[in-house]
Amino acid sequence: MDYNYHHMKIPFHRRIMPWVFALIFLFMAPAVVFYTAGYRWNQNKGVIERNGTIMFDTLPRGADIFLNGQKLDQKTPFTMQNVAPGTYEIKYVLKGFHEWAKTLPVDPERVTFATEVNLWPDAQPELAMPGDFPSLIADPQGSYVLLAGAPKNRSTDYMLVDSATAQTKNRVTANSEFVPQYADWDKAGDVALLYGTASSVSQTCYLQTKALTPNRMPDGIYHWDGSDLVGFADRQKITVQNDGAVEHTPQPSGIHDVLAGFSLRYVTGTADLVLTLNKKTDQGFVLPPGQWQFRAQPDSTLLLQSGKDWMWIDLATDPLTVNRLQADWLWPMVVKRQTRYLALNGNEVYVWDSGHEPELIYRQSDKLVSAAWYADGKDVMVATKNAVIMFNLDARNGRYKTTLATFDEIAAATVANENVFVSATKNGQTGFWRLPLAISNAILPSLPSFGGF
């Protein structure tokens, strides 16, 4: 059988299609690779750039996440990748807690952290104890709070209150009108040097928490030398041992103060002071005018005080790095083995790191009542005359503040064991109030009253 083969011409569209697919592949393959690598077209900038990442997390977890007003399907913790560079408003919402919101930038190939955010319970203060308490001071570990009542009939009631239960551990009525304002504690929190007033006159008192009776000390500035309290006053070196025994020894000639191998010495014939290492008395650092005395030796630094003037010297630098601050009081906090201070100066609150200028956290026209660290060192409590406020120290686009509670009038406030304790009047009731900061405390029942002064 004969077959006739006829040459048939392939249509043009069929001949061109492989080339079209090849060209599409050549163009699309890099685009797919770039897309999976996080590159996107930024319409606002008119350029192709790599995207960023946002990490969301809160304490407690499980908060709703809002991004530029849109609620995400996920809750904290969550990581969102391939986010176009720009600025985003991030808001966390959790039932029973105050909201948190901040606008943060997202940069190409970078991670934006909206993490370690403490959400504070939206709870009403609980009256733990009625009474007038002009002073509240927490120990360094936050285990208890020292309360001083308003002096009556030349006597003052002092109470030690458990910070977890708000129950009284110890109570003493002392023949004194001394009301402490600030405390310098030993490391164990068993002994405190209290600075305060009695009949509007400044006084310094030594207090052991077991005895709870303040003993007046000679006026001066003291520091801890191990478990002993050491200071210089009236040309005498005063040493208070851990058993409460007080020793007075003559002050060495030309010596103003001594701490851990360092001395403050008078420049011959003047009132000027020079900081020297005891082994190298021929070399020293001349201090600015003032009656400087040692306060502490945090890390490889020295902290000195002269009235309301504080000086922090970094000994690890050459020449020495010196920073100064005017403050009523400083509260230390150790973060990653580095000491930093929270400072209250009238109507201002600062955070102070070694080797850096003090950083202003908050300022208002009226005098502030008190300030305190929160346990993680990332937030601070500030008490005004009428409100308790928590400030997050993340400075990106401003520090976020949360007003936890308002009062008619606040006399004192402190933070201990996941609570803010406030001496205040609210709705006509004056007393010792507790405001929970953690979810475990926020769901506890109201505390009973224990009777007032």
Any idea what the radius of gyration is? 31 Å
As a percent range, the share of strand residues is over 45%
What is the average per-residue confidence, as pLDDT, rounded to a whole number? Answer: 86
Strand adjacency order, main sheet: 5-4-7-8
Gross geometry:
flat
* Helix content class: under 10%
Assigned CATH architecture of the largest domain: 7 Propeller
Number of spatially distinct domains: 2
CATH fourth-tier homologous superfamily of the largest domain:
YVTN repeat-like/Quinoprotein amine dehydrogenase
CATH class of the largest domain equals: Mainly Beta
- Secondary-structure class: mainly beta
The main pleated sheet reads as: 4 strands, antiparallel
Q: Cα distance, first to last residue?
A: 126 Å
Task: Tell me the total number of β-strands.
Answer: 41
Low-pLDDT segments, ≥5 res: 31-35, 441-453
Separate helix tally: 2
CATH topology of the largest domain: Methylamine Dehydrogenase, Chain H
Describe the fold and architecture.
The protein is 6% helix and 54% strand. The protein is mainly beta and 453 residues long. The protein folds into two domains: 1-119, Immunoglobulin-like (Sandwich); 126-442, YVTN repeat-like/Quinoprotein amine dehydrogenase (Methylamine Dehydrogenase, Chain H, 7 Propeller). The strands form eleven sheets. The chain has a four-stranded antiparallel beta sheet with strand order 5-4-7-8, with no helix packed on it. The longest helix has 25 residues, at 12-36. It is flat, with a radius of gyration of 31 Å. Mean pLDDT is 86; it is low at 31-35 and 441-453.
